[in-house]
User: Fold these one by one.
Assistant:
Number 1:
Amino acid sequence: MPKLVKDGAIIEDTWQRLDKPAGDAADVAVPEGQVIVPLSVWLAQRNALQARRDIGVWIDSDENALELGEDAKTLPLVAVHFPGFMDGRAFSSARLLRERLGFEGELRAVGAFIRDQLCYLSRCGVNAFRFDDETTDLEQAKNSLKDFTEFYQAGVDQPVPLFRRRA
Amino acid sequence: MYIYDHYDHEILRQRVAQFRDQTQRYLAGELADAEFLPLRLQNGLYIQRLAPMLRINVPYGMLNTQQLRRLARIARDYDKGYCHVSTRQNIQYNWPNLEQVPDILAELAEVEMHGTQSSGNCIRNITSDQFAGTAPDEVVDPRPYCEIIRQWSSFHPEFAFLPRKFKIAISGSQMDRAAIQVHDIGLQLVTNDAGDIGFKVLVGGGLGRTPVIGSVIRDYLPEAHILTYLEAILRVYNLHGRRDNKYKARIKILVRAMGPETFAQAVEEEWQHLKGAQSTLRSEDIERAKSYFTEPDYQTLNDAQAQAGVDALAGEHLAFSKWLQRNVRAHRVPGYAAVTLSLKPTGIAPGDVTDSQLERIADLAERFSFGEVRTTHEQNMVLADVRKDELFELWQAAREAGFATPNIGTLTDIICCPGGDFCSLANAKSIPIAEAIQRQFSDLDYVYDLGDLDLNISGCMNACGHHHVGHIGVLGVDKKGEEFYQVMLGGNASNDASLAKVLGPAFEAEQMPEVVQNLVNVYLENRTDEELFIDTYNRIGIVPFKERVYAKAG
Ligand code: SF4
């Protein structure tokens, strides 16, 4: 089973992620078990899927995380997707999920991000990292979470900017 | 000047360690080229035509003598004994070894300097007025705000992978010397009727391929809210800026596509959620920043007496009087003046400075200007706090060291990017063009008589040489592998900012001195007593210039 980094530990990934549907999102058959569905599928099948506790939603970089609205408070997992590691929209989407929508579940980065982005991603509220590149050395990647231990600005991890904490 | 505390040092130490690790992984083949690219850029490292280029931030242009000496040492130990002052007030090394860059950054960190976010798709070094704190027309000293914004933007976790680079400039004076209208965000410090400090906010200005003058999206933003408001602008840009085409990815394209009003509304909506958060500045936070930019230990001087002394010497020494006229500016404190050291003698690439010259400048700063120096976006250096009664002595020392060319603001004070000699993006060389023009106008008296005339040269459309805002702008273009130069007229980076208009078909390198001479001749023949080149151009228009240049050059 593939692995991921979550809350600083390496664990097995028990979730399955569905691709975006080519056709109508309403027609997608969502399998049993822990499934991360595309935002479009969630929005189209929300009433049926809401009854399940094992459904997560992934948001692509060109999608608006705010469309989850109040649902964010009840979902166990939301993923933000990197189509390429240079596409930095997921950083903002993650903050919106945490700071605007009050999402408290597992916030997962998925896709083509790289290890050197972990520290900043975690500052934006991401707490789980599932690399597309399965050759990534997760032990090493974990170290990147600690690239910095002090920061100037407010973040999800530390809402008080340094200028208010300086003696 | 800002002084690091243990937090700043720790953060920078961690950055150097991070980049050292990234460089080692790259050299060991564990980090792919494409992945290392943005990481090295965000530490200032480009891979250029001939060698890497390392760009070091000079936050809003301020340097102390310890930093100057360290820059000199690095030029000597890791480079070919010189460096370059860029058009964004930064310092560039042209010949470092990739393997040694982490060591260079470690040496810089010791003197509170770095290359963090000096390149790449992130918030770049904040630029400002080189005469901040000393200019008589200053409304509010911009430096404390520059520092607050520098800290906010440094290692910002959300905005390190923007659609494109992002430049912020701040002006606190009546006359804009920071070119805020051609930045991604331009901030003008203002006071309202109650005397409270705030910002006029411009967005979407910029040079490059599509030059645009920025739009005002807010006339008055109280100072307390600057960080949350910037965060709102950046978030709107990060989420909505184009990522499909790097030539359309700057914020100016987004602002234009949405329309400035709609863009302003989107920012306003986003800001409503951020307003009042912990990033709001309390008065003690602003006071703390201001405490680093207190006045140096000015003496109480008799201005009239000092001025009389200067005038008397000027009467005896014509060269000194010309230098006073061009290179010395008024200061708001009686008995003091601000002096620009010219890095533009003929025959030296504009903005280049050697290790020993940097050390000479440090000596001069210590002796004459409280140990501080500023870099300028015109690629010169400034001693901002010189006693008038020491100007003559400074002039003699500066002349000996080669910094006293009395050409500041004149035709030979050319703004020039590194161009095809160094830059891998260039279409054409720019330094030899600058030199050829300087040689054409080697008669200092002649140049002096021409008065203010900005000539700016870029080696390609990226416009690092700010050619769109030169009174005369020169742009290197490539035609079937040959280098040509397009000439434009009428640009202006100051308060009444305007973009230059293309004169006509491009020229060969050899024609350029003559072309500029023809432009100058048209000015000389048409000017009235009070007119500068730009005034004459604005009055008579582009046609007479065009006719002359193409009649002769054609
Ligand atoms: S304007 Fe072009 S040639 Fe000149 S430094 Fe910039 S990118 Fe290079």
Number 2:
Amino acid sequence: MDIKMERILSRVEKPSRYTGGEYGAYVFDKSTIDTRVAFCFPDVYEIGMSNLGMKILYGLNNQVPGVWCERVFAPWPDMEAEMRSAEIPLYGLESGDPIKGFDLICFTLQYELSYTNILNMLDLAGLPVRSQDRADLTPIVMAGGTCAFNAEPLAPFIDLFVLGEGEEVNLEVLECYRNAKRDGLSKKEFLKLAAKIKGVYVPDFYEVEYHADGTVSSVRAVEGAPERVEKRIIQDLDKVYYPEDTVVPSTEIVHDRVTLELYRGCIRGCRFCQAGYVYRPVRTKSPDVLIEQGINSCMCTGYEEISLSSLSTSDYRELSKLCDGLLDWCEPNYVNLSLPSLRADNFSFELMERVQKVRKSGLTFAPEAGSQRLRDAINKNVREEDIANTCRIAFEGGYRTLKLYFMIGLPTETDEDVIEIARLADRMLKLSRETSKGKRGVKITVSVACFVPKPHTPFQWDAQNTIEEFERKQRLLRQHMPKAINFSWHDPQTSFLEAVFARGDRLLADVLEEAWRLGCKFDGWNEHFSIEKWRKAFENTQVDPEFYAFREREEDEVLPWDHLSSGVLKRHLLSEREAAYRSEITPDCRMNCTGCGANLMLDGGVCNA
Amino acid sequence: MRNLRFVFEKKGRAAYLSHLDVMRTFSRSFHRAEIPLRYTEGFNPHPFISIAHPLSVGVTGSREILDCDVLTDDANLIERVNKYLPEGLKTVQLSDATRKVNEIAFAKYQLTLYYDNRDRLLAAEWLSSLFEKSYIPVMKKSKRGMVEINLAESIDKLKIDVVDDAFGDELKLSVLIKASPAPLNPRYLIESIVEDDLRPDFVRYHREGFLDMQKQSFV
Ligand code: SF4
């Protein structure tokens, strides 16, 4: 380590974020490498290193001979200031080399509020933030992840996006790039070739026209790019690469454990949930493969915990078999198994008891809405009796904390629905007092988020509540919430900004750049988020954010992301929206396929939910 | 069951790991090497691992001590563990943990003081006389807030050397710091320097090892 860096590291918070050198990091002899890749996570190390997708793509790229993929995270502002004043450009953690000279710079888009960090990281790397100002083939800046399904606000900055699951398409783009480099192609020639790969979206090859009222009138593909970009999925999850020997951080991160993905997609169809729609259809991993990968991962990494993760873990058909198989190995080896996101039913609870014998960590449920009427409208298929029954058994069995997650501002919501959140919490409180007589009381936490309508969901046309409306509903809740409940709520300002960018178009790119120039970064972090700077950015660029957040779209309006396909038909989203307004539930994919269209992405065309 | 003492070095990029980071990293490398450990009984079992006088973040060490209960007779543990440790952590010696760590009487430190474009010779002279005093006041955080302590009571054999280096701006300060009643962070040495022009621009801290009452190496 050079003395300049040593001095800097002695002054910054959590210096091990910036050193690299962890066990299992890929380090190669540069003379064997012809392609350098930077995998960039636009948030701090502890967050980025907790992300399974990052570990998959990092591992996968490094399996390719001649390719070296390194990790890059957003430096915290104290480190950024040091780097800027010492003129140290953004570097890869493995080699310490500046990423400016790398071939591919790949960002993962997990949440809208990380967009300013992307611009900041490009700038810290010493690169122009706009694609048009980066003329050469090297580096190509690409991005993928959930937010790529509406990539428009980032369109002028990113050379190409990949839609959907990345395991195959990333390698195809990598190969396309290596050929282009070998053949001496220009950036544009490469992008034209890349745009032919299924799942690749080159925003520059789409011309967007607007109506006088600011809505999109048309999106036209040019340069031979496809009219609609279809997302990619992995057909057989049992065969896809899984990073058993992943890099193991030495310092503490948020999710510091082996993560097993039981399946992708979700059978439930909650109408507010973007992940539930854009990751369709459900594809399952077999328990035998998962058991083997779980055990091997623990042996390779030394982790003492395995977490089973998927959108709704209880829906995994062979959950019992999987847990038994893992526990057989875990128990004698002192490895813990954890099961987040279980449903409120007896089966799940018994399983949790069996798995987490020792640590009664507490119960967590996400009813999302207080009244059954609104839960039906959002298709959140959970009944209060189920929650109450599970809570009763749990409280009697010694559980001492209960966390309940809700949203306010959901379409069709009335004040009565809002107040019902407080009443539900109150009923759980009473229940806890009845069941835990003589014992220490149960601590109940109610956390209320502000609903953000997301693209590719049935609520993509709906208006978000205004900030005043959110604040009014929060006050209403506070009035009705029993004092004994620990009540917390989200800042509506950040949810507002998230809503603007979630359903934004290309005109927001100027706002984003202006906000970043005004100093916005780490917008997802309370201590850095500044609504004043953002307001200024909207003002300076004369863009009205309310147009994006608070406006209900016409159903025949061209949406900025209509040319990006998740595989789910717009027709289906509309019929789900109508059902929501009738407070009608839709059966889950296992009970009855409602023909969303995602099955057509499967070889064979039939979902096995 | 054996109670083993791993003598290890912590340097390079691993210097920035905290005490808990080092514990965690060793424990994981034992798992990776498939070395069976003895666990505590009870609700939340954890392996018996302890580190003597843990180093703070940013400080390197040549002969740090980690004691651990293992359930194997394998004689080759050094290689097995080292294969699974990250860059910067390395076991250099292994023995049974027979001596009690409370026999540690001193920690031997070497500090490198950087005086950027300043007269280090002058600084060396001043510092030598400063640290010879029998009363060196320094403020230390305690449970009762900031209290003044006498640094002179905690240090021994302090020596300042002017060595040849590339820029001619380094001083080497070697010192023994008493391990009891409470080991003092070597940063207090620098904090006790009140004169601005004697304060170095940067200091590198390195612990060479531990000594017993007779000032012999502890391990
Ligand atoms: S096609 Fe049918 S079963 Fe498949 S995801 Fe869509 S609704 Fe569910």
Number 3:
Amino acid sequence: MALAADGGDGMTGEVAVLGAGMHPWGKWGRGFVEYGVAAARAALADAGIGWRDVGSVVGADTVRGGYPGYVAGATFARALGWQGARVASVYAACASGAQAIGTARAQILAGLADVVLVVGADSAPKGFFRPADGERPDDPDWLRFRVLGATNPAYFGLYARRRMAVHGDTLEDFAQVKVKNAALGALNPNARYRKRVTAEEVAESAVVADPLRLLDICATSDGGAALVLSSMDFARRHGAADPVRIRAVSTVTPRYPSTVLDLPDIATDSAVSVEPPAHTFRASVALAAYEEAGIGPEDLSLAEVYDLSTALELQWYEDLGLCGEGEAAKLLREGATGPGGRIPVNTSGGLASFGEAVPAQAIAQVCELTWQLRGQAGERQVPGARVGITANQGLFGHGSSVIAVR
Amino acid sequence: MSHTRTPVVTGWFAGEGDDFRLLGTRCAACTSVFFPREDTFCRNPGCDGGALKEVPLSRRGRIWSYTDNRYRPPAPYASDPDVEWQPYTLIAVELAAERIVVLGQGVPGVTVDDLAVGMEVEAVPGVLNEDAKATWTTWHWRPTGVTA
Ligand SMILES: [Zn+2]
């Protein structure tokens, strides 16, 4: 493998992951600030870095905490105790956490900060995510609820049915994704759901959006995740000779015409005047990460993907190039993406075991990579893990993919 | 109680019966079609921008995918919480001439068991809900009985 640390400055463009921390996911009923601060303190302790030594804080925003949620970076900095650090807050729907990591990386590589704390946390509502209040016909998110009643699970149902029709995926395949992820989540102390699930239990759960059942669809959760990132120079001075390194952060946008119906849209772009790009948006997010990291899917030890539904996890296998188009269910059935397989996917238990805490989730994915690449993932450990990828997609043309190596 | 028939969104559809059509816009410079309509700018990155003119979309298309809502969606979807929830279908339809996929509700009474990917459907006028202000109208997708 061409990815061993070279003992020198490493690849230009890399940043070190000095610390990772989480507040466990759940439905705790408290404010997001509390989860974020707990995660931040855990990441700082893991890094062996004092809060006063942090030069910059980047917060991933939540739209559910009022004004403090829109200025999450400052909210966390204030809660930890103002110490003068540079601050930024970013919002990119489900990709907010990855954009926070991207912002931190840019600051480090630009020499603006040696050590950056990245934090995301959310306090989730009951039931379906819903748009902000008020009469807002210019907002596609408001329109899809008003005009169609198209909830997030409805879109997941559309994607799942399409896969069944085009690729022959079955309900049993979808259920097996849940069975796999629930078994891994049972081993993860930060997961919200820590019980194994059988295919029968999935099949017996209520249909939410045909063909998907309750246990095919991820819940919404409270939780917090944080990372302490630094320059490679700082890491060496700090005594971290062989840290986990972030080698790529892809946050590319779609290319016109985007021909896969995306949330919260009512229609796709029309391809009548311009031919669609060679790759779908999701695939292009991953490709940009591979290109930046100078690696390919064959180099991966593990992947953390955004399994908003069981069927979407299968879609990611293809979009990440783990298999050819239409071959995801086969890859799953062969056990390639399970523990001990060629390319274990969602060793954390995935969203199936966590439930989505929007601004924290993409950061949590990188926490899992960090622990895996350090060999600290306990019973979930992928032996000898050297390269990991995350993948994620959110509303309004947001997606992300992070590649970490050691 | 007024029962004025009012489109839930202005300018997205027009006509009655066989004349019912979804309305988009077309860029005069690059021929790109937009639904929901773009009236101020063309979103083709390779286009310097042209006049956007209203165009009716194809009435018929084929099902790209479909699903249903087994649970009551949250507001602003309008439904009476005192009335037992009746699931309805959501159908994504590919219009061949426009090379676009448009989501809509299936006509009342149609269930997922009546649908298949590739089946032909047509846009028909429908009612979304009624309140003190109006009878809010929308588009529905209805199977034509023609299967791919
Ligand atoms: Zn144009």
Number 4:
Amino acid sequence: MNAYITDLNQIESWFFKLAEKQPFFLPIKTEGINYRFEKLNDVRENNEQSFPELLSYKPTLLPPGKNIFPDGEILFSYYKDEQGHYQFTQGSNIESQIISGIRACDLKGIHLMDAVFSDGIKDIHYLQRREKTHIIAFNCMTPCDEHCFCEAAGSLDFQTGADIFITPLVEENKFLLEAQSSIGIELIKTLTASECLNPVELKEQALSSRPAPFGRQFVEPIEQVSKIIHQYDADKVYQQYAERCFSCGTCNLVCPTCYCFETKDEFELGNDLSQGRGTKSRHWDACLNPGFAEVAGGHNFRADPAARQRHRVRRKFDYLPQRFEQTFCTGCGRCGRQCTTDIDIFDIVNDVCSSVSETVAQELDK
Amino acid sequence: MNAPMNQSVGNNPYIPMMAEIQCVEPLTERETLFRVLLPEPLNHRPGQFVMVGLPGIGECAISISSGPDSGRTLEMVIRKAGNVTGVLHQLKKRDFMGIRGPFGSGFDLNDFRLDKGNKDIVIIAGGLGLVPLRSLIIPIMDNKSDYGRVHLIIGSRTPKEALFRQQIQQWKQLPDCRITELVDDVDFQDWDGEVGLVTEPIHKLQLDEKNTQLVLCGPPVMYKFVLMEIKMNFNIPDEKIFVDLERRMRCGLGKCGHCQINHVYCCKDGPVFRYSRLNDLPEALG
Amino acid sequence: MKPKIAFFDFASCEGCQLALLNCEDILLELLELVDLVEFREAISEKSARYDIAFIEGSIHREEDSKRLLDIRSRSQFLVALGACACNGNVQARSNFIAPAENYKLVYGEEARNRVQIDKNYWPLWAHTRVRSVEEIVKVDYQLRGCPMSANEFLHLVKALLSGQIPHFPENAVCVECKRHGNECVFDKGLSCLGPIAYGGCDAICVNNGHVCDACRGLLPYANVEAHNNLMLSKGISKEAIKSRYRMFCSAEKMSQT
Ligand code: SF4
Ligand code: SF4
Ligand code: SF4
Ligand code: SF4
Ligand code: SF4
Ligand code: FES
């Protein structure tokens, strides 16, 4: 049995202990109304008190998966030796890290990224970092805010991939910790806690005390949503949203399952104006950027903002699910929360579904 | 740049092999044939592509032009179009260029063999489209007796831009090979082929429709018209029509997302697609 | 022979040159590779040709535009350096006000009145319109921003010196802002021009606790109407929005609306 019960004070002091050994991230409140994963040691320097946010925080500005897929990652560096031969070195040094306070939706996001980066030709940069990343996840007892729809997207209670999974129990200030991997078991050794003998029962109790339905729900069940998104072009719906879209890419960059990137090659100018040494790096990109699907001759395969908006929605609900058999929207609500012009993928999806049932109804009338 | 030196670099899919340039042969004003020697054989299939470039400068997707039996030698035609290709055009014999690959699905030669019942092979190439298709034509011509009748329709804008003319002459000598070369415009130059669009000779083809394999590669505008012409004249099943498409590639690994056409990644599932698959990919010919 | 690089000043604060001096170490390395012709030497050496001519500042007087045409004819690449050269910058706000009125605003009523009688008094503002470099000559590359970004400057110089084509990605400031993991200033009760502004600055203003005022100009695909509605929905007055738009992009399409 690898289940334990403890309270928030113990969890906090345990976090500080873990943070002494390796970089340890957890969500911290920003100046405004959001949260951001920060290194615990940096936080402690600036403020002494504890972090009650652990119970209430909503999804962070950037999802935790970005710690495993950092922007600007060096893919390799090179130099030209004296004989004019190119010599390559791997990339950046990868150190181990613990990310704690990951929500179920973001755990699912990381799980999906794992699938993408190990599919086909493996992306060793991601996979090496992933291997050295340990996860302490936190279950949600209430919908985080009005933007989330994790239950509808099927990621509420997602537990796979966490080394330790924490569930707040019905009894106040009591938490159930489940160690789900050998690393989890190792990490939990430094926690002061009592062993839990009836974890299944306690967890069941906690989960059934949650509001139902949990957060926003689609007008159709998720399987049906995927079919509709796949089958109908729904130009009008996408067009309507595209009209107020800036093509700013925010919705892509903050999404836990967006992983598109641009590569950048840089060199230092040598004395003979040659490119003696340099690097290749990758940078987060966004399919909502107008230039994303432009080819060498200048032809743009998605020049229209409505086509780009549809591409994003289909990637989450149609294209990637076809390839990996899972919905690629975790319902974390980030895109809607952070879009300055209030475009929410949940609304788009619902509108597409409703517009389709209207059309079908009209056809039946005829 | 403070990268550790001791880690193994073998499995980093972003690090290119450095190939030595053996020959640089300008074909037209903008297109140059590069023959390079790789540190190890590529073992590619016809229709596959490689990412070509220089460290520090960048890469772009370039079709493989040599046949699959070319061993460590690799031939590519590079058009000067942007920064990377511009820099590659400045390279000389014995310089190095970076190669990653081969990537993409490419063609399976078994789909074309006579012993698989394929009586006719039609290959239609517009402009640079001949470059990737050459990797398919070479193995067919080299083992001509294994294949049925071959019909090549090759279009260029002007005689100056016509590629591989000498080699095409040699192919013409082979049994059961009908080759039509066309230009849109003679532009006051010598030209011994025909004048017109690649769509024009299509209706004259003599085909065993049920046992024909048809391959198509050219600029994006070409596909729609050629396919229309084929559909009007022949009853070739969509699974037996292949199109070779262009997209912007960055990683070649099915990760970066730039080459995505609906739910498929061109660099992984393409760039060669059966036409029957395109029904499901409305963005493909957009 | 080393490539010749020259800098020419027009109406500007010289902030861009200052920004350049701030990246001294890289600049020193670069200086070994090129022959730097300074602005004052440049005018004495009338027949000289330049490999790269950097133009700093906006163009106000007729004689300035003549000088600019002359520089263009002698340069292989001509680069507009900074917001003043690229789109007129704050100076171009004066395009919306009659020159005499402008003069009054800047120098006071008394000076304005003196202008009417004293022919030799009105040196700088004797123009009808502030123009960007592009309005007068062909510009090969633009280094946007107020001040321009030293990184982009280095990228451009390295590319041109090694026979390459410099490339500047076209995206909104938001892209870079998100890459930095910033909290959107709209979530702090402020407003921002980032969604419609040319990026490339690495969202430096938001990174440092400010908002974006689109000093690099508007994206060609800027959805100004949606942005206007967004600003209105935040309770910002029409006048305030207009003045915000005009702050840096005066010479550009939006502010002419
Ligand atoms: S979206 Fe769901 S799982 Fe994610 S934080 Fe909100 S409530 Fe929790
Ligand atoms: S965040 Fe909003 S405005 Fe920006 S690209 Fe996405 S949908 Fe459009
Ligand atoms: S599409 Fe939006 S709600 Fe869905 S996972 Fe991405 S950011 Fe979250
Ligand atoms: S602060 Fe400005 S630039 Fe940054 S995301 Fe918000 S609107 Fe965009
Ligand atoms: S954030 Fe905006 S104002 Fe600041 S440098 Fe960038 S474009 Fe200019
Ligand atoms: S080129 Fe990157 S996914 Fe195809």
